[in-house]
Structures are given as structure tokens and as C-alpha cells.
Amino acid sequence: MIVFAHVGEDEILKIKSHSLIVKILTQPGSKSSAQIPIEQIERLKILFAQSDYPVQFEHGVFSMSDNVIVSRGKLMGLKGEIVGVANDCSIVRISVDFLGGAILEIKSADIEKITK
Fold this sequence. Notes:
By secondary structure, the protein is of the alpha+beta class. Helix content is 17%, strand content 22%. A 5-stranded antiparallel β-sheet has the order 4-3-2-1-5, with no helix packed on it. β2 (79-85) and β3 (91-96) form a beta hairpin. The chain is elongated, with a radius of gyration of 17 Å. It starts with 8 loop residues before the first helix and ends with a strand.
């Protein structure tokens, strides 16, 4: 399993001490932990979402009433508001005024939160 986390060096030491942690990704030729830009992590999520094998991400970034935009797929560019989130956060329901208030179920990997 691969886990990405926003943590400081002191927290990495705690994580490394856990018996189930096999390796912390490091910079090539270094012992310091790698810092992966958010943009690259987002690209990995898209890549994994198109995988032939199941890949699961804990999104947890969407809340009720969040404004979102579809970032990929046939509905790319469509804006809506979160009106429901599945238990595992992989599917969200969005209300889309453009479609007469229709409610769509869409993969959370296919949407982005609109920040004001």
C-alpha cells in the first residue's frame, strides 16, 4: 500500500518506528524523506483511477455544500455542489443547476473543490 501524508520530520520518525512501515520514500542518494508536489500526487491519482486493478484513495476532502468542478471525463468543466458522499468517499453526489437541478453520482477522483 502507498500512503501520501503531509507531515513534518518529527512525525516521520514516529511513522518509521511503526512495525508495519516498510519504507519511507527518500530523495535519490539521500536519507531525507522525499517531498512530492501536490500536482504530482494528483496526477498519480488520475493514473491509478484508470488502472486495471483496484486502487483506493481516502479522499475525505469533500464536505456537504462544497462547490466542485468536474476535472476529467465527458462532463469536464461542469460545476455543482456536493449533496452527498458515499461511505468510502469514492463516489459523491453533486447537484448541478445547469441540468435543471439534476443530481449526479460521480467518482470523487474526477472532481476538484472550487476555492474562492
